[in-house]
Request: fold
Amino acid sequence: MMILPSVAWQSLLSRKNTAILTFLSLTVSIVVLLSIEHIRLQAKESFNRTISGVDLIVGAPSGPLNLLLYSIFRMGSPANNINYTSFTTLEKRQLVDWAIPISLGDSHQGFRVIGTNNNYFTHYRYGKKQSLKFEHGGEFSSLFNVVIGADVARNLNYNLGDKVVIAHGIGNTSFTKHAQAPFVVSGILATTGTPVDKSVHVSLGAIEAIHLPPSSLKALIKDPEAIPPTPKSITAIMLKLKSKLSTFGLQREINNDQTDRLMAVLPGVAMAELWSLMATGENVLRIIAVLVLISSLFGLTTMLLASMNERQTEIAVLRMLGASPVTLLLLVLLEAIILVSLAIMMSIVVLTLALYSLEAWLAAEFGLFLSGDIFTMELMRLIFMIFIATLVVPLLPGISAYKQALHIQLSST
Amino acid sequence: MSTLAINLQDIHYRHKDTPANYAGLSIEQWKVGITERVFLYGNSGSGKTTLLNLLCGILIPTSGSVNLFDNNISTLSNSQRDLFRAKNIGVVSQKFNLIPYLSVLKNIQLAAYFAKNSRPDVNNDVKTLLNVLQLPNNIIHRQVNQLSVGQQQRVAIARALINHPRLLLVDEPTSALDASAKNAFMDLLMQICDNTKMTLIFVSHDTALSHHFDSSLDITTLSRTLSKTEENIA
Reply:
């Protein structure tokens, strides 16, 4: 019989104001808790999917984390450059399967420009060893070709064959724009959900060319068949080895290189460093979220307890009708369950809407590629735990109702 | 099968927290036959309310036995007693009446629910009862706090009758009604008792109503309140 839930529901309606406030406070706290947990899980996922199948990242000596952040996630600025010859030497090593050079430092309308070669499009892997795919066009075929990520194409509304100006520096507005160098979009990559989407790829030669004196550059533009300048330095190298077993040996060798100052890091190790760095902040956020939830559960209890006084008459009536004390406890629990279930549903709706509307902004501002789908195992488990907590907390007013019920009697006063 | 609806034997009751206005109640013997209608009167503090609570099993006597229709309800378990009350006793009282935020129908359905009255035509019974009680059918989904006092009183009777109780306890039902409403209410109550062969215990301080009943009884002659003991304790 559905009469008890409907009585609980009517009882809540009769105390609409307090019930709505309690519902809102529960909703806010559940949204906070769920979004923190979701962002935490998704951030990890989003970082983890960015790079796949790279055994070593080589760059100028700084910290492993720093190297990882600027070379892969395009965050922050590179500390120093390394010699281009180090790349050519490494690429020729027997141990090395493939090597991708990366040269950073320029930007285009706020998107980072990556100087690289066609190895990038053939070998770079993300997510579950997925390779890059071209939505339109293809890789570099001449010096001033540009391959842009999906977000770049979408935001700047670029199509194949469009002319593009690449600026020096990484700011949005740059003083020394290399206006003389008209690049042509030769390829647009499919969406990956990684920083690749926000990158503008040019060849290493082109990077070198735009930094030439204006006269030499003009000559080069007029005669595209001319031999492009060889790069002197690059920012980092991604290496894939033929056998993972040689990783540590090669890493030691690179770190001790006498001809250039180099540092090689394992992406996994650097990633672990990143997690341990983030763990503290994560835990603080989680604790705050849990405290917020606990406080609104107390709010729920307060509301129910306060209502117990005004409901003495009601409890007496129910007793008289033959309701057992346990039934009264159940009624109070039902009220809590109704409020919390509504709050959970509401927070799922709010969170889903928020994620879908903020998706683009989060990706652009923080490089976070969040999924709008919050029905993951972890979140379901969390929701279940919230639910259990709300079953325990209202026991206090419930037991108060129970005790009142035991002692209450009909009285004509 | 005896013909007794109520049979109290050597009842002593003392509240353990000893409320100020009544320390206890002591009844040697009280018998009420089936279909009998009893008018109980007495000053406040004479133990009327305690007696009603004992009769419907919300209070348990400290000693002695409360027999209703040959069931010693003092020996039943709590849940059995709650169910017995729900099934056999209808209560109409002035104060503790209806749940204000529920509709007329819900209030009555609740009574049926607690009595485990699962007859499918409970809703029809409600309509019939409302007709008998001269309540318009369209109030069935109204919240009871939107009804007049007189209407609420009749809804309370409908609720008390939904499970076809054998004993109806009525506590000061008329104090909120004016003279003509009071008479209409009494006539209606008597008519229902005629039709249903219920036993009726009617508690009021308004002795002018006593002519409706088979017998009337001053509660002080029935019981001996233990006010002296109370003073000793205090």
